[in-house]
Amino acid sequence: MKRIDHSVNLNDLANLPADGVVIADIRDGAAYLYGHIPGAINIPAEQLADHPFAADKRVVLYCRTGQLSAAAAEQLRGRDIDACYLEGGYLAWLQRQADNLSPQTAAAVEQGIQTVFRKRLFTKFVKAINQYRLLQSGDKVAVCISGGKDSMLMAKLFQELQRHSKFEFGLEFLVMDPGYSEFNLRLIQRNASALGIPITVFQTDIFDSVFSVDKSPCYLCARMRRGHLYAQAQKLGCNKIALGHHYDDVIETTLMGMLYGAQMQTMMPRVDSANFKGMQLIRPMYLIREDDIKAWRDCYNLHFIQCACKFTENFSADACRANGDMGSKRLKVKQLIRQLSAQDPEIEQNIFKSSQNVNLSTVIAYKDKNGVKHYYWDDDGDVQ
After folding, report:
1. End of a domain among 280, 312, 329?
2. What are the beta bridge partners of residue 241?
3. List of E strands, 162-232
4. Radius of gyration of the chain (CA)
5. How many other C-beta atoms can be found within 10 angstroms of the C-beta atom of residue 1?
């Protein structure tokens, strides 16, 4: 009986003949779109049972850490499919890419921001800061880095702005460790080092605090993370925290609010903190498109984590979503916007501008800044 290896490592994967193997990413569609191993096809775990694998090809499955794909490969072998899994999963591959970054990466990225990507990234970054009044002389900004592509790019853009700015402002590059695995934290640190970003890491126990929460742990986690970031930023003498949300996040959030939240609101470029006096949250990537961020990432062969959440370390995406994650809804909205934009290129811009063109005389009700609700008939006077 032919022996079938149940796993392959990264070296084995590189040596497999391309025409004799199928590399299948069994994470959800959002994770795959964010980043994947070159040549891999996306077959979400729940679709594996129905996928028609070719009998003459070896199937290599990978998930985030290798745990889910190990079980999935065993199930496929029960169908007489030559299936194995990648040891360490996608995170192991990410770590290999980070370890192989050139010592010249930071210099190349910095030059590219001022040349190749100046119009698409740096110019829009500066425009958002000026248009929405996000930065003033004497500010000290805590640049909040999650480890993903958006926040890492934001850090580099701030560094370039500081070098070329006509006024002085301070920067702290802040990484909150809410309970990352050692692997995830090491990957964040390795990427930051390669990019020349001097990060400050501080510890919290947020993941442990919300891990056993049944209802909306993701919402609670996000609120707790924000509070810790404000508090740590204040300790460092900062008056602002900067988050890496971009143009696509804005339009997706606007549409999600209508479709799933029955409300008309958007992601604001600047927000005053209600609980930390004198602190502001700013979003300087507000006008930058996600496709341009991906182009920057791919140009320099950079690879970042999408999510280091403890819920997704050991559970499937479906289990995470059952605990309140909005990832599946955001993916649906992202796909919907892409479909509509393929038919009418102005769709995305129209969604973005919609929150700037609100006519209160044409809405049934609205809330003022104090949360008081007003109806269109409030000015009618007494009805006879």
Report:
1. 329
2. 142, 281
3. 170-177, 199-203
4. 23
5. 3
Tokens of 82: 């030559």
Res 383 pLDDT > 70: no
Predicted confidence at residue 244, as pLDDT, reads 96
pLDDT (0 to 100) of residue 180: 80
Question: What beta strand segments (E) does 77-179 contain?
Answer: 83-86, 140-144, 170-177
Residue 247 host element (H or E): helix 247-261
**pLDDT, average across residues 41-48:** 94
Encode pLDDT of 245-286 as tens digits.
999 999 999 999 999 999 989 999 999 999 999 999 999 999
pTM: predicted TM-score of the whole model, two decimal places: 0.85
Q: Which of 211, 185, 119, 196 is nearest to 163 (CA)?
A: 196
79 inside domain: yes
Is the distance from CB of 311 to CB of 319 less than 8 angstroms?
yes
DSSP state, residue 65: S
Q: Confidence band (pLDDT; 50, 70, 90) for 336?
A: very high
Query: At 208, which CATH number?
Result: 3.40.50.620
Residue 332 has pLDDT above 50, yes or no: yes
Per DSSP, the three-state class of 309 is: coil
The per-residue pLDDT for 47 is 94
For the cut 80, the answer to whether the pLDDT of residue 311 exceeds it is no
Neighbours of 328 (CB within 10 A): 15
Considering the domain architecture, whether residues 12 and 110 belong to the same structural domain is answered as no
Share of the chain above pLDDT 70, in %: 89
DSSP 121: I
Both 202 and 277 in one domain: the answer is yes
Among residues 200, 295, 198, the alpha carbon closest in space to that of 246 is found at 295
Taking CA atoms, 240 is separated from 123, 177, 222, 279, 319, in Å, by 21, 19, 18, 5, 35
Tell me how many domains the chain contains.
2
Enter the tokens of residue 316: 């499937």
Q: Which helix (H) or strand (E) holds 85?
A: strand 83-86
**Structure tokens, 184:** 């995830």
CA distance 90 to 312: 13
Which structural domain, as residue segments, surrounds residue 287?
102-329
Task: Give whole-number Cα distances, 373 to 273, 332, 364, in Å.
Answer: 22, 31, 10
CB 245 within 8 A of CB 267: yes
Kindly state whether residue 14 falls inside one of the protein's structural domains: yes
